């Protein structure tokens, strides 16, 4: 990109054509190290997941596209769209590809900006919730930058290991404006 062009960041609905990319990124070591589920997900597991989520009205699976190149997945789940509008979210990026291209930080900032905007301006949520593993200090710092508030840590057993999970939340009124 020359200095006059602007980066583009877009979230679009994931399709069956994206399933192979989602699985390959999710199974990258970098992503598995900061996920509750650390084992490599099999194509069969992934197909079951996709089958369950693609038409579930309480979920959204979106592809993050940066400069016309898919490079991440954002999931919204546990959506409650009547009464107080709440939902939870998570994301992962093509960590290996972005690292090779030297684009990790701008993509990370972009996906977080787009996801928060989608949550509040697209889904019209009042509160966005999520979780982060306690050892994932870089994400915890980024969450604070975006004004997420950490809750009380809790212990969980996942993939045969004890993990500390920290709930996070961001109220509509507290979000950063562009």
Could you explain the architecture of this structure?
The chain has six helices and eight strands. It starts with 8 loop residues before the first strand and ends in a 7-residue tail after the last strand. It has 178 residues and is of the alpha+beta class. Strands 1, 2, 3, 4, 5, 6, 7 and 8 form an eight-stranded mixed beta sheet that branches. The model has no long low-confidence stretch (mean pLDDT 94). The protein has a domain at 9-127: Aminopeptidase (3-Layer(aba) Sandwich). It has helices spanning 19-26, 29-32, 43-53, 95-101, 104-122, 137-145, and strands at residues 9-13, 60-66, 69-80, 86-93, 127-133, 149-150, 154-158, 161-171. Helices cover 33% and strands 32% of the residues. Residues 10-146 form the N-acetyltransferase domain.
């Amino acid at each position: 990109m020359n200095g006059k062009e602007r980066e583009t960041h877009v979230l679009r609905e994931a399709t069956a054509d994206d399933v192979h990319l989602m699985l390959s990124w999710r199974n990258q070591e970098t992503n598995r190290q900061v996920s509750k589920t650390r084992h490599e997900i099999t194509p069969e597991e992934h197909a079951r997941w996709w089958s369950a989520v693609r038409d579930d009205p309480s979920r959204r699976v979106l592809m993050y596209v940066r400069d016309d190149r898919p490079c991440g997945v954002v999931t919204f789940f546990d959506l409650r769209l009547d009464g107080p509008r709440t939902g939870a979210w998570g994301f992962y990026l093509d960590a290996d590809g972005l690292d090779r291209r030297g684009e990790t930080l701008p993509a990370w900032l972009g996906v977080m900006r787009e996801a928060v905007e989608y949550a509040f301006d697209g889904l019209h949520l009042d509160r966005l919730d999520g979780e982060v593993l306690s050892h994932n200090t870089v994400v915890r710092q980024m969450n604070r930058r975006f004004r997420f508030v950490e809750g009380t840590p809790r212990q969980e057993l996942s993939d045969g290991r004890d993990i500390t999970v920290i709930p996070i939340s961001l109220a509509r009124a507290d979000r950063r404006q562009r």
